[in-house]
Amino acid sequence: MKRDRQSLPPIILVTGTDTGVGKTVATAALAAALQSRGRSVAAYKPCQSGNKDGDSDCSEIARLAAPLTAEAGVVLEEPLAPVQAAAVDGVELPSLAAHAERVRRLAAGHDHVLVEGAGGLLVELDPDGGTLADLGALLGDAAGFAVVARPSLGTLNHTGLTLEALERRGLAVEGVILGSWPEHPGLAELGNRAAFSSGPVTLLGTLPDAAAALPVRAFREQAPLWLEGIA
Hints:
The protein is α/β, with parallel strands linked by helices. It has eight helices and seven strands. The active site is at residue 45.
């Protein structure tokens, strides 16, 4: 069944069913696709960890998509969850309220703000146990979630749990993005994509494996084709 394209809200919180599912590439692809439609885009990462290993999701998003703004709320050295990384670094994490205020300011100067979470939806981002789900609640009706999922076996359960957590909190879900789509998909991948395509939540698109290794020009040109589910 052909589904209508999704018109994305001013603030899009990009979460994943787990770590390593392709949130950063999905955020960059969203930025490139939106900019191809003439929209101005900012990217914001509340908590960036792994700096000592050279990890910088904002730098990667800037390289691939060149949004008008790409910044992190706090940069942590250890490749750990934010609370643990901050404890090792001896750094006090910003409050969710501080992140929300910065996102609102970015939204005032851009058509869209893409907020990339850390790991999955319920990873704690501040000392009070606040999560990306809580940040979405603070941002209210201006915000919606894009859920990035693996295409492989097990993704239906992991994605279903994430979507259920969002629904129970009354948070808007804009759709699902499948990351790391293999060049030669098997029965599991094909079946999972078919299930998402006909499910109750819009399938915003499918990103090819190693998309980040493409030349930047090719990435930006192809991103709107990958994300055919957004208006």
